[in-house]
Amino acid sequence: PAVLDLLAPYPTPDRIRRLGHSRLATRLSRNAPRMGTRLADEITTALAEQNVVIVGTSAAETVIPKLAEQLSALQRQRSEVATEVEALVQAHPLHPVLTSMPGVGIRTEARIITETSGKQFATAGHLAAYAGLAPVTRRSGSSIRGEHRSRRGNKKLKRVLYLSAFAALQDPLSREYYERKRAQGKSYNQALVALARRRCDVLFAMLRDGTTYNAGTPTAA
Predict the structure, then answer these.
(1) How many CB atoms lie within 10 A of CB 185?
(2) What single-letter DSSP state applies at residue 213?
(3) Which of the 8 DSSP states describes residue 136?
(4) In a 3-state reduction of DSSP, which class is residue 190?
């Protein structure tokens, strides 16, 4: 937002250069208080290193402000939609259930609701298979080659459960389980997938019974 706010009225290197470092830092800091000065330093350094006028600069002077305004409008619209979606999710009956689990925020909750709504899962294994978190056994003729990560399933749900497991590493019980898998020789990704799979079992019970998460075990809401 800070850079878009700058480019709308100052779309060329020459205009930004004439603005000066002090005023440049002040303008950038309006929308980026923590990094305004650093951005000004980087821009000023880049301008000092430029010794060639690039062909098309005059054309860019016309195009860039319009693009900056369009992007700013899209960002505002995205923020408005996000606010509306957040309100809808918070009003959903499953909101207190899902957000009780460590690592589950509004966006994660929205994705879980979206991807599981209207679907019935007989067991936790069925939910895990749907999410692509259940390992599959590879067979070749009469031989079995062991279990491998599934490449099937709902990729959107799988990704959000994986990222949720990563966020849950701040939770002591989740971290303990993750570290135990690492100690067993599993890689970083394998340990996270294992944690996501374990959390999927708990999530299934929470969705089935309408119960909240409590120390690794769903409890009645």
Answers:
(1) 8
(2) E
(3) E
(4) helix
